[in-house]
Amino acid sequence: MKYLVLLLTGFLAFNAEAEVYKCTDSGGNKVYRSTPCVAGSNIQIDLKTGVSIDLDAEKKSDLQKIKERQEREEQAELQRQQAVQRKQQIVEAGKKNQVLIKARPHDFSAYAIPPYDVDNLLPLVKRFEGRLVDIERLRGAAAEKALATGQCNRVESSELNEKSSPESLVFLVDCSNAKTFYFNEQELGK
């Protein structure tokens, strides 16, 4: 019988562990409870270490982290959408040049204005990657301006030139009669 009582007492001792919450009301009074406190005074005390944990602050911190994570995800999604939209704009500008070439094959070589592959750009073009839509548009304009001079029989190529700077893009147009033309973006914008 003695052993049975000791055994039951041992089991009860293990189940006696409970969480304690330190609740502070609006008057500053502190009360220790076994149930969570109302909002604004929710502090839990760890019985093993004696450390008090403000559960409301933890909850606010968790909510803030969730909000920040959602904002980062939204920002990443927005950047992804902008990149897709930018690629589509570049492809559309390249298609306009190809339509121009197909409409006037006697004025343009089939490879006069090849579209740029966004994922595989030349080092020169990569420096101006942010203006790729403008570059595609201006390449076509440079080729047409060279033809308009009357000194170019047929455009063989229209490319961005090494003389380009961030302030002004320069385009080189080669013609089949060995003439070359340089146009900057200010001349082509008129």
Automatic annotation (TrEMBL):
Signal peptide per UniProt: 1-18
InterPro entries tied to this protein: DUF4124
Annotated keywords: Signal
Domain DUF4124 per the UniProt entry, residue ranges: 8-43
Entry superkingdom: Bacteria
Protein's recorded name: DUF4124 domain-containing protein
Native species: Methylovulum psychrotolerans
